[in-house]
């Protein structure tokens, strides 16, 4: 991510112009990002209603047609409607993105809390996490697909597993510093049980960084899914995803670039919006940055 | 008590501040941070600026240095005159030139003021690099010379040392060397001894006095400690809420303060004379510690390092309704003892009997039912309450753990708040809405909620201003009388110990060197270390609260 979190003064209107009622200032950029993302999510959710055609229905007579009234974005090499496919493809992509973010954050949070608080468990867990981190997600995906066949779950696993150690490290570092706070020691002296201390005193400290981390995981998962599908190691080719559509369109790229352009555009907009929102969340939740502006 | 009584009528002014007003930028309606502050410092004079936190002492010093945080605070009126030039009108370049050559400053925490990755000799040399053009050999000679002047041992070795290799006192000497190497007219010392132990403080204070005499430097000394004021000041300025409320030569001010605020400030300085002995109660012993030992770094078969004995053969007992003080400097092991007794860390050896039950060897789970008998109040009121929790939720955490009904606990929490002198609607508020002293009251209420037999106060009043400190000490005393709890009071401050303790235990390097009633230990110390501690307490022969010499001193 950007090394300099402080937006340049001349970009102030873009990053920090509109004051929300809560006193937080949110710029035009994040507002646009939120709008775009909402539209993409809605279009994916309501794809069955919005799509003019069945995304899987082939029509041999209508192969590689340009935009027309019946096919607003044209058709692909099998005569399937591109617009219907792009809209439907968003469902899988977003499902994998959000799913991977939630699963890795929840599992990472639990492991990280335990690892940060109990010294003995820490040594073992962190070595395990180090070895997990060494596995490239693409290699893992190919292995999982080879074992289980191409499916959403193989892809989800391949994306989620390498993300977990990153979340664990983040949570652990927050817990390590928070557990030294006198209020945690006071809770021990008051006879609170370990699970209670972990959950009620330490866990809330990790929420802000986790929200930020979650958005980044979501964006990178959508991208990784597209890459895996593009390489043929992802979701099975009958199911349209943005990556699959692009992979199939690659062959006809020179005669019909729109086969890659439209899913690519949706993918870029989606990831850009999520990242922008993640940056905004980081700035809003980081008290140090807030102070500097004040 | 011998005060400084030199006459400065003939001496020339070094610094003259007239009507200095500092405001929050962009907020002209808010009260000014400094309101028409005027003071002058003459050659060779030590001016002390005293006041509680938030009174504007440090803002005054930062204004002189031209270091007010940009965009937050700005001087909107007045003059700061040094050698006929108004410092407020100088541009950044000219101001930089003034610093170190004309005015220099030393800070409270020498560890953070020094760069940890540069050798200290180079850091002193850097001052010369910025302001002079000396050949390397001459530069080093001057650095070694000033290091000798601040009485650092083995200067060649220390020249090559990094800050972390030096003790706190040595680091502060390095800071003083840096500040004085260019022989400035004015030295600003902002709480320079607050982070140091009393014995080190005494050395640093006499060092500053010695160098001041040698070089004729004027000193602006900022402190909250009246004892230090009595030792070193020529003239004292008392600040409150951005105003100077009173100024006078030191003896006049301490003998006959004119303003109510000054009287109040002096009256809250705890006296070094121990409290009147209380009758020994017939109550049973509630905390007994026997042969307590804590060793760090003992395990590790291949480790050649000598294990550190943080506490060694500590033994004492406290009956109901009495207060035992553990006194010592940093590293003496007093906090280690407190944390062992609380079982926040595990003792290596020894017995701890709380309300008749041996708890030193219980597992965490076995320990939980006994936790309620012994509770702790920590030093830092800003970190000892969970900032995300309401006061009420913090107060009922313990009672819920021992199975009390939530509604009953909440009702009792409101009563507890009244007991510690806070409004009972505080239950619904958050810690950040309270001052340090109020938060410490909440922390005490939280401990009392468990109805403990023993309350451990680990430097519980050290972070508070003197007037608040006095109130919290009174509160502890009152609670003790009402509830009959025993208090284990850990402190580095002999004055505080004298005020509250029945018995005092003096620790040094993990060993108990002296143990007796407060009257015995403080009036007739047997061990050399205890004597050194008492001797180092600044202003020890002055009774601040009664504006006169301490009787029998």
Automatic annotation (TrEMBL), chain A:
Main location: membrane
Family annotation (InterPro entries): BP-dependent_transpt_permease, MetI-like, MetI-like_sf, OppC_N
Superkingdom, natural source: Bacteria
Keyword terms, alphabetized: Cell membrane, Membrane, Transmembrane, Transmembrane helix, Transport
Compartments where found: Cell membrane
SUPFAM superfamilies per the UniProt record, alphabetical: MetI-like
Residue ranges occupied by any ABC transmembrane type-1 domain in the UniProt entry: 90-278
Transmembrane residue ranges: 31-51, 92-118, 124-147, 259-278
Membrane-topology annotation of the record: Multi-pass membrane protein
GO BP: transmembrane transport
One of the record's GO cellular component terms: plasma membrane
Family: Belongs to the binding-protein-dependent transport system permease family.
Protein name according to UniProt: ABC transporter permease
From TrEMBL, chain B:
Keywords attached to this entry: ATP-binding, Cell membrane, Membrane, Nucleotide-binding, Transport
Places the protein is found: Cell inner membrane
Membrane topology category: Peripheral membrane protein
Transport as UniProt keyword: yes
Domain called ABC transporter: residue spans: 15-266, 287-534
Single GO MF descriptor: ATP binding
Xref: PROSITE patterns: ABC_TRANSPORTER_1, ABC_TRANSPORTER_2
Highest taxon, organism lineage: Bacteria
GO biological process: peptide transport; transmembrane transport
Keyword ATP-binding: yes
InterPro entries hit by this protein: AAA+_ATPase, ABC_Ni/Peptide_Import, ABC_transporter-like_ATP-bd, ABC_transporter-like_CS, Oligopep_ABC_C, P-loop_NTPase
Gene3D superfamilies, per database record: P-loop containing nucleotide triphosphate hydrolases
SMART domains to which the protein is assigned, alphabetical: AAA
CDD domains with a match to the protein in the record: ABC_NikE_OppD_transporters
Pfam families noted in UniProt: ABC_tran, oligo_HPY
Record GO cellular component, one term: plasma membrane
Family statement: Belongs to the ABC transporter superfamily.
PANTHER family on file: DIPEPTIDE TRANSPORT ATP-BINDING PROTEIN DPPD, OLIGOPEPTIDE TRANSPORT ATP-BINDING PROTEIN APPD
Name under which the protein is recorded: ABC transporter ATP-binding protein
Classification lineage: Bacteria, Pseudomonadati, Pseudomonadota, Alphaproteobacteria, Hyphomicrobiales
